[in-house]
Amino acid sequence: MAELITGFNASIQVEHQQEEEQATQYLTFRLAGKLYAIGILDVDEIIEPSDITEMPRSPDYIRGVINLRGNVVPVIDLTARMGHGITSINKRSCIVMVEVANSRGVAQALGMLVDAVNEIVEIGQANIRPAPDMGESLDTRFIQAMGRVDENFFILLDIQHVLSSEQVTRLGQLSDHAEFSAAASQKAGEN
Asked: For residue 24, what is the enclosing H or E element?
């Protein structure tokens, strides 16, 4: 009986070790020449940036809204959000679609404008390190960890913290306002 129990514990330890060694997939992209990544399970889709409607009196990091299959979706400039200036849209630019929770815990679709999407990489747990402590002067709450593949280091972003839940709620209100304005314009055009 002791062998049976010992064998059972050994198999649990082996399973736990295998889980720790498993790699997680990340979508990698560039922002102002730096490498970033988010978990592939956080990505809904990747689209080309076209017809972004700017919204008046919005912060620099909010590029505006897009119409995605009939839904108005806010787009943030992730380079500007990281404090690296405004993205110049070019042929490599992409919008990475994700969902983040607002202050009520409701999922909000969000587009993140990036300079270029690179590839999907697998990063093993052994190659992921906690985000460095940069002191109180730098806002690092959106950095989940640092990952390494070969000689490349990636800043692994926590998309749930790139914006505060209050900011996400305000973006949802921005989308609602843009939908209302578009509907009113369409109705006025019909008359």
From this structure: strand 23-31
